[in-house]
Q: What sequence folds into this?
């Protein structure tokens, strides 16, 4: 199941409260953000007016960082519900996490007409971040902002009490609590974690190099295809112009008109296709991602070398893992799609030594 972190802003801690905004952030990076136009404005108190309403990005036309995979919607409950239902379909199974979730979960369920009407791919039991913190030995009332501050951008740090920003903060807190890198080292085999990171980075860098190769091949084929279409369109235009000349010379007028019409339609179709053809993936982005993972791979291998030579203390190792985790998080915030074929091919190349990097790359650390 995919873990999805939920946060809402609403008009008060009472039974008749109404949603102001709602956000969901998946652990894999996809995000949904909605602002409601039909909440009960009469219920707003001074705190909400000062801390929540000014941070409604869409309502106030504020600039904010949007993900290429994000959905951002402003509208009434029906509009938000329909957009959210569509967004949720991309996940096979969903595990909802929220922070002190009593109101968030009820309001989320009510948006669909109650808990019994939730989309089928949502697990019916929600999970609470505050409970996880208590299990990990932290005060459940710990400052989420301070705990995750160094993982947040400057813009996000200014946006506490914006639902999307808070949902991202929850996701970071969950990841840090789960790994418990700096607060509970006695319960984690840090050496094993470093080894796992190295393996993950090895496969990840290969995956994105394979994806870059695929995109390069696809773009080359598309370039040839578009070149042929452009040439065809030009030829059709020339033939159509010739048809106009025949028409005015009164030679085979009826046949000329029919042929001219067909050619014009074909030429128009080609032109429309070339105009609306969607933007395709950039090969350079995938190569850059692969190189970032290679650097992390080398970094973790260097740490492993220090471990084997007893050159790093447990406290220093915990800090290094925290640093690696932060780097990995920053890399993965921008989603680059890969295919099952990419994953299978990259796995085979790593297993059989078909890597795009030489053995020397791996020995340098």
A:
């Amino acid at each position: 199941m995919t873990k999805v972190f939920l946060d809402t802003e609403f008009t008060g801690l009472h039974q008749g409260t109404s949603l102001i905004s709602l956000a969901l952030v998946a652990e894999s990076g996809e995000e949904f953000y909605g602002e409601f136009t039909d909440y009960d404005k009469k219920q707003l108190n001074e705190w909400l007016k000062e801390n929540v309403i000014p941070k409604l990005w869409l309502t106030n036309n504020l600039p904010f960082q949007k993900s290429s995979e994000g959905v951002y919607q402003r509208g009434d409950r029906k509009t938000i519900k329909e957009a959210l239902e569509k967004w949720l379909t991309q996940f096979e199974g969903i595990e909802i996490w929220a922070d002190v979730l009593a109101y968030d979960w009820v309001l989320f369920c009510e948006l669909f007409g109650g808990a019994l009407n939730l989309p089928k791919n949502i697990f019916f039991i929600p999970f609470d971040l505050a409970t996880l913190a208590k299990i990990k030995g932290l005060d459940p009332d710990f400052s989420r902002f301070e705990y995750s501050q160094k993982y947040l951008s400057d813009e996000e740090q200014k946006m506490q009490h914006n639902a999307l920003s808070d949902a991202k903060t929850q996701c970071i807190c969950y990841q840090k609590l789960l790994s418990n890198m700096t607060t509970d080292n006695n319960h984690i085999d840090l050496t094993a974690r470093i080894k796992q990171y190295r393996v993950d980075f090895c496969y990840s860098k290969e995956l994105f190099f394979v994806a870059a190769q695929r995109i390069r091949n696809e773009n080359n084929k598309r370039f040839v295809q578009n070149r042929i279409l452009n040439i065809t369109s030009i030829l059709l235009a020339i033939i159509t112009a010739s048809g106009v000349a025949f028409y005015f010379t009164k030679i085979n007028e009826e046949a000329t008109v029919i042929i001219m019409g067909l050619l014009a339609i074909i030429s128009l179709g080609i032109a429309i296709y070339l105009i609306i053809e969607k933007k395709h993936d950039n090969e350079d982005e995938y190569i850059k991602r692969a190189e970032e993972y290679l650097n992390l791979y080398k970094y973790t291998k260097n740490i492993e070398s220090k471990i084997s030579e007893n050159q790093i203390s447990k406290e220093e190792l915990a800090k290094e893992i925290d640093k690696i985790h932060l780097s990995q998080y920053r890399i993965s915030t921008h989603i680059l799609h890969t295919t099952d074929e990419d994953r299978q091919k990259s796995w085979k190349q790593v297993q059989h030594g078909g890597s795009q990097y030489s053995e020397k790359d791996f020995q340098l650390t």
Q: What stands out?
A: Confidence is low (pLDDT under 50) at residues 181-188, 356-365.
